[in-house]
């Protein structure tokens, strides 16, 4: 059993070992022709772009909360071990290990029905440095009230819903916690309606105050991505992550660097904070907000500024990015020798007025399914399984930050880079 708090469905497919036995007797063409059939025999209908069978209305993956759960229940233990090695990699020669959490954290996850999983990334033992183990948490959540409810009620209901998840992180001894992009509101930007601007807050606004108390209570650094209104500079809007220190102090903020050309760009523009790395009690952290994950140089800049852990708080749907999700952050972790925590909201958010997404499709009232699937990636290329595709959740991982330098020494990506060549080229094209 790989997760600390498991919610397996009752489906049990025949082990794929049966499939491989059958395949030994087939030619390659037969295998191709029969792939779908064999998949169906095993209850694993293969997904195609237009095939909704892999994403039934409950937004499960063939009845499972995550790919990890599906594979664990469907493969023989031996085959699953090997598939895990290939899909999630090895950390210090071993599969990324689940760890157990204190009972109060587990009790909160049962009572409030959120997915709770915990893992551990190791580093090699060093002779001159002590291990630098940090416990990091990521929270994914759906909204709490219909998008038609009064705004203040919507926001406060989200506070109420997220509170026990933060309490679970506190009970589990999490040191650094990150919430999802614009966590205090629905992702109303897809509607283009300006009324969502009302939910913007100053950096020291209501949500920051709410989290400051919790940061103090649990001695925890909290990263809080909000829609910001800069009251001191023309009341402009930004998509901002506020970094709250473990004493409840505001360490700083980062404003989203890359704004997608969908909805959001009609609300706010590119951030003006560069690529800050925040020195916290628990390590050097940075935030690459959502769409910035598609920009390798954005990831690079946080690395060059010394980040050891970069969060990617997101709000993204299946149609946009699900196939990129397991790849981009993991690649950034490898290329820049740091850890990445990827967070995505969950659920469907239905809005009162129909809108289009500029894709020629009919008007609709919901943007699409936010597929959750929050997870961690490590600089050695290993990663954790993902949280549920449709439920709120908290994923925790211990990570020895010494692994960052160890990977730099092993692979030397920074040393062998040729940034001067790229700088020259970029100088020419800019
Ligand atoms: N929130 C946001 O930047 N969404 C863009 C979609 C994506 O990057 O997957």
TrEMBL record:
Q: Which top-level group of life is the source organism from?
A: Eukaryota
Which chemical reaction does it catalyze?
3-(carbamoylamino)-2-methylpropanoate + H2O + 2 H(+) = (R)-3-amino-2-methylpropanoate + NH4(+) + CO2; 3-(carbamoylamino)propanoate + H2O + 2 H(+) = beta-alanine + NH4(+) + CO2
Give start-end positions of Basic and acidic residues composition bias.
21-40
- Where in this protein does the record put region Disordered? 17-42
* GO terms of biological process kind: beta-alanine biosynthetic process via 3-ureidopropionate
Q: Name one GO molecular function term.
A: beta-ureidopropionase activity
Q: In which pathway does it act?
A: Amino-acid biosynthesis; beta-alanine biosynthesis
Q: Which family does it belong to?
A: Belongs to the carbon-nitrogen hydrolase superfamily. BUP family.
Q: What is this protein called?
A: Beta-ureidopropionase
Species of provenance: Camellia sinensis
Q: What is the lineage of its organism?
A: Eukaryota, Viridiplantae, Streptophyta, Embryophyta, Tracheophyta
């Amino acid at each position: 059993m790989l997760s600390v708090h498991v919610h397996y469905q009752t489906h049990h497919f025949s082990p794929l070992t049966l499939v491989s036995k059958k395949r030994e007797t087939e030619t390659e063409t037969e295998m191709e022709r029969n792939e779908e059939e064999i998949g169906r025999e095993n209850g694993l209908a293969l997904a195609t772009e237009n095939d909704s069978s892999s994403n039934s209305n409950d937004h499960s993956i063939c009845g499972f909360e995550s790919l990890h759960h599906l594979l664990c229940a469907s493969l023989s233990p031996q085959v699953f071990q090997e598939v895990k090695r290939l899909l999630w990699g090895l950390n210090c020669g071993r599969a990324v290990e689940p760890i157990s959490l204190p009972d109060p954290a587990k009790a909160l996850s049962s009572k409030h029905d959120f997915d709770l999983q915990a893992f551990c990334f190791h580093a090699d033992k060093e002779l001159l440095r002590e291990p630098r183990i940090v416990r990091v948490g990521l929270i994914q959540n759906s909204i709490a009230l219909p998008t038609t409810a009064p705004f203040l009620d919507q926001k406060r209901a989200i506070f109420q819903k997220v509170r026990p998840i933060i309490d679970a992180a506190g009970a589990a001894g999490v040191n650094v916690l990150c919430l999802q992009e614009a966590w205090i509101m629905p992702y109303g930007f897809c509607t283009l309606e300006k009324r969502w601007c009302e939910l913007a807050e100053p950096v020291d606004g209501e949500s920051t105050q709410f989290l400051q108390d919790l940061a103090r209570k649990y001695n925890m650094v909290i990263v809080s991505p909000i829609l910001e209104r800069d009251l001191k500079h023309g009341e402009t809007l930004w998509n901002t992550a506020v970094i709250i220190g473990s004493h409840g102090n505001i360490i700083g903020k980062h404003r989203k660097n890359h704004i997608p050309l969908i909805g959001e760009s009609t609300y706010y523009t590119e951030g003006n904070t560069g690529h800050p790395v925040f020195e916290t009690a628990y390590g050097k952290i940075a935030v690459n907000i959502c769409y910035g994950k598609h920009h390798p140089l954005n990831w690079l800049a946080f690395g060059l500024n010394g980040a050891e852990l970069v969060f990617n708080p997101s709000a993204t749907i299946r149609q946009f990015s699900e196939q990129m999700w397991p790849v981009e952050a993991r690649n950034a972790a490898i290329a820049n020798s740091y850890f990445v925590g990827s967070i995505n909201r969950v659920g469907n958010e239905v809005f009162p007025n129909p809108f289009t997404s500029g894709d020629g499709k009919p008007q609709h009232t919901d943007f699409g399914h936010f597929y959750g699937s929050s997870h961690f990636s490590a600089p050695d290329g290993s990663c954790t399984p993902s949280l549920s595709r449709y439920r709120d959740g908290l994923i925790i991982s211990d990570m020895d930050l010494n692994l960052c330098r160890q990977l730099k020494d092993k692979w030397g990506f920074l040393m062998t880079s040729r940034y001067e060549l790229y700088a020259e080229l970029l100088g020419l094209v800019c």
